[in-house]
Design a protein that fits this description.
single chain; alpha/beta; four-stranded mixed β-sheet; two-stranded antiparallel sheet; 8 strands; globular
Length: about 260
């Protein structure tokens, strides 16, 4: 195809789209959704490196005592994105093929969810932007009962993981978790560290699951119903795999001297 294309160009002809696509594939390129990479300062890299070193010797069973939580948003037309890149296999994380990520803002369906190695926790639709008031109301209304029941059934003490967003770390939210709920968490969690939070993979997995039903989703309420359905059907084996990857994730951050990794 590449020879055919060259002959057409030499003759002053315009190749058809099918020919161009064939040449691109022949050269080993393909169309992919770009990888997303967080914006990391040197200070954040140091914090990430210290966190990874501190947690490196945790066993997989100890990681099973962590409840991972986070917020994410979904839209009727698809999750945030839409960009495509043309690259070869193996070039996913080349800098020229990466979209740098920052924290989201705005509409439409904002979710809070959590999971541990043995199963999913509650999935909650949040109204409006996520501030401390919204976050604090979510914990007693949806999370605490789940935590108490899980602790009783599993006979183990759980650590609650959350990222460093202001709605999680503000004075009111911090006081509420400590004084009113007695929730134990990590001493801190490094910012812009999607690779150290396996729930990011769970959100992507949820998006992939609902993508098969996208043509049926026309309204926000239909999207919410689909998200709830797919969330409840997530395989526990997949969750175990995510949690079991934590030692490798920590080692990868150490090897990258605190920089972003492929996880």
């Amino acid at each position: 195809y590449s020879v055919h294309l060259q002959n057409m160009l030499d003759a002053g002809l315009n190749p058809c789209p099918q020919t161009l696509v064939s040449v691109i594939k022949e050269l080993g390129f393909g169309s992919y959704v770009p990888a997303h990479k967080p914006s990391l300062t040197e200070a954040r890299k140091k914090i990430r490196l210290a966190w990874a070193k501190d947690k490196l010797n945790m066993t997989v069973d100890q990681w099973r005592s962590v409840i991972w939580s986070d917020e994410s948003r979904y839209t009727v037309l698809g999750n945030d994105g839409g960009h495509r890149v043309i690259r070869r296999i193996g070039e996913r994380y080349d800098s020229k093929h990466i979209v740098k990520t920052m924290k989201y803002g705005g509409d439409p369906v904002m979710l809070w969810g959590c999971f541990w190695a043995g199963g999913i926790g509650p999935l909650v639709v949040l109204d409006g932007s996520v501030n401390q008031d919204v976050y604090v109301s979510t914990l007693p209304n949806f999370f605490l009962f789940f935590l108490e029941e899980l602790t009783e059934v599993e006979k183990r003490k759980f650590i609650f993981q959350e990222d460093g967003a202001s709605c999680h770390t503000g004075a009111y939210a911090t006081w509420f978790k400590k004084e009113r709920c007695q929730i134990d968490g990590f001493d801190y969690c490094p910012a812009q560290s999607l690779d150290l939070n396996p729930i990011e993979h769970l959100w992507a997995h949820l998006e992939k699951r609902i993508s098969k039903r996208r043509r049926q989703i026309k309204k926000v309420e239909e999207l919410k119903g689909c998200l709830y359905d797919e969330w409840r059907n997530i395989d526990n084996e997949y969750l175990e795999t995510l949690v079991a990857s934590m030692p490798r994730r920590c080692q990868a951050v150490i090897d990258a001297h605190g920089g972003s990794t492929r996880y």
